[in-house]
Amino acid sequence: MAQRQVKRKVRRPARRPAPRSTPKATQRRGPVHIRLRVGFILVAMVLSVFGGRLVQLQGIDPHSYAAMAAAENVVDVVLPAERGEILDRDGEALADSADGAMVLADPKQTKKDAPAIAAFLAKELGVDYATALSKLRKDGSRFQYIKRQVPATQATAAVEKAAKEGYQGLWTSRDPLRNYPNGDVAANLVGFLGNDGPLAGLEAAFDNHLAGKDGHAEYDATSPVSGTRMPLGTNNRVAPVDGDDLKLTIDRDLQYYVQQTLMDAVQKSRAESGMAVVIDTQTGEILSLADYPTFDARDPAASPKTLRGSNALSNVYEPGSVQKALTVAGLLDQGLVSPSTRIKVPESYMSGGRPIRDWYPHGVEKLTLAGVIAKSSNIGTVMAADKYAEGQLREYLSAFGLGRRTGLGLDTESAGLLASPEAWNAADEDRIDFGQSVSVNAVQMTAALNAIANGGVRIDPSLIAGSATNNSGVEVGTDTAERTRVVSQEAASQTAEMMERVINDPVNGTAKQAAVPGYRVSGKTGTAQRVNSECKCYDGTNTVSFGGFAPTDDPRFTVYVAIHNPGNGGGGGSVAGPVFSQIMSFALRRYGVAPTGTEPSKMPTGW
Description:
Belongs to the transpeptidase family. By secondary structure, the chain is α+β, with helices and mostly antiparallel strands.
């Protein structure tokens, strides 16, 4: 039998269970923990540094670091306010703002070329070299003012030229420039601005009203020159507040004419100086207030400091015989005299141990009170004024406004001199009767005469239309002007008719050259000795004047002219009278005032 072959199953050794697999991270657990701990420690250290720095910046010494940052990058630029305009009564500018600019520098950029740039700026802009050099080298600063209120075209041209020459770090910013378009017209009143602010006139007296308030812009700049600002940096802005306009009662065209006429008269008479004032009789508004010599507000440095204001307000002098009109008006108001009162005038009159004489030699004259005014007799005036009771004359002169400021708002105005009641004596009164031993300014005298023209009512003269408050806190202007009756309507009318005889009396009149063809005109001449401020004595020079109004029976304007020390020997009638005539004629025509057509005064001047 065949033998079966049996395939035997070969037994393999049993496999041992494989151990559970272990994660690699677990296998390397030790090294990972170490790295994490080290990382955390490093992060903590960095955060601690930043935290400490933050505490130092904000807690321990914030101001010093803020200042360092500001000095490095923060720019604080002035945003100039627009200064208010000074306007005439018709809104014409006497002072306004023109296009101007300030020139600025970034010392971080200018420092390396500072000497050359400073020399350039001194040449182009007229700045002081040493001052400019110091600013251009300013350590830690990104912003310096080089010059303010430069004409915009000049400032721009200078900066552009500097760039072409390779000088970096200069730029401009808006800075309005004060402009005086009429030069010397009303410059004595308007004044001017200097580098450090207003220095004279209305510009100075009403600076708070005109100036406004500058604003400013503060920002972080990577380059002040280009104006590039840091994102999310400081950016503060306070807008400027513009100033208010100041409107005057002055008539620009009339002011120009008065100045030219006054200049011609002073030059022709070879006089030292002159003043002229025009007042609207019915309102007290000053239409013109002129001085000669004066100055150009565009170039004040070209004239002496003594001329950079109004001598018509600040310079006092004895008014002379124009004063007689006030003396006589008070007498008429008291009923002590009449225009026809007869006065026998001797050739001299003793007072206080000294003789009083007339300006002309004469024997005994028979004049009416109207004749005393027409012929301007000192002696006749004193004799008439002897009828005053004690203290009465002073009361009238004070009521006419003498001895006190007119209240125009200019601090440079003088109050003049009117002796106090305690210092008043009979000898002085005799001389005050005809305008000596009393001092006035030109506006005071004009306002006093205007009271006679206005029917006996004095109106405070005004230079400001409406009202405005000056730097002293005083509100002035036409809205605040007060009216005060000084003498009666009848006394004022009688005085006006007597003053008319000064011009139209063919025998005794002393100012025929003050006539205005076609119009009735009242006026009074004046000639007074001048007091020398050093010796306190009369020095042989004099002031001649003429003041009056027209038309006599319906006055529209009061004009006063005073000329100091004429070299041709002329008096009030011959020197100041023609100036009065020209100014009054122009004013009447300009405002369309027609002649009244009534008969002129024919009061008798002699007996």
